User: Which sequence fits this backbone?
């Protein structure tokens, strides 16, 4: 979901990415390009395109960055997601694939994967919260589903204090550790995407 970025969010993004982190993200993009090349995908100039796309998606909030995760990890996750979608596409349509030709297809495919994993994660979290009779946490998940993610916005929407929200968020983080390992790994990949 695309949101209009706030000045505060843009400032946080700018401050969170050091030159060292950017070099790490670029190295990671080049590593992913090597994987893509082994899958028969032409990668001329793709590494920088992957980095630029990840930065643009984050800055424009096409992909929301959870500030609890280091920005470099988030960007690497986006790059990994795109690379994975390109490999899946190349396997479905065997031939040498030019990455620029499948960019739109991989974006749609990646969005579909993210949506599918998100639905599974939310469903699992809802089941866990319901089994614990945690009505507030269920309401927090509803507000998240409506697109609110900022602490004060969620608290205001629910009519609770920010401290109550923090406590609910802590319970949510504990529930996340109870998600099956395979689904949690997929969710972490999607959160980084």
Assistant:
């Amino acid at each position: 979901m695309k949101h209009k970025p706030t000045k505060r969010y843009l400032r946080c993004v700018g401050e969170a990415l050091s030159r060292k982190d950017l070099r790490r993200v670029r190295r990671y993009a080049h590593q992913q390009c090597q994987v893509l090349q082994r899958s028969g995908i032409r990668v001329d100039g793709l590494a920088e395109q992957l980095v630029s796309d990840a930065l643009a998606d984050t800055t424009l909030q096409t992909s929301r960055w959870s500030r609890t995760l280091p920005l470099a990890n988030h960007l690497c996750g986006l790059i990994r997601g795109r690379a994975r979608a390109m490999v899946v596409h190349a396997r479905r349509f065997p031939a040498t694939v030019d990455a620029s030709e499948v960019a739109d297809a991989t974006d749609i495919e990646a969005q579909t994967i993210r949506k599918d994993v998100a639905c599974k994660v939310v469903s699992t979290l809802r089941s866990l919260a319901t089994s614990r009779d945690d009505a507030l946490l269920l309401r927090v998940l509803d507000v998240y589903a409506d697109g609110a993610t900022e602490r004060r916005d969620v608290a205001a929407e629910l009519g609770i204090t920010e401290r109550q929200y923090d406590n609910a968020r802590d319970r949510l983080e504990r529930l996340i550790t109870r998600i099956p390992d395979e689904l949690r790994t997929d969710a972490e990949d999607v959160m980084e995407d």
Q: What stands out?
A: The first strand starts at residue 41 and ends at 42. The chain has a mean pLDDT of 79. DSSP finds nine helices and two strands in the chain.
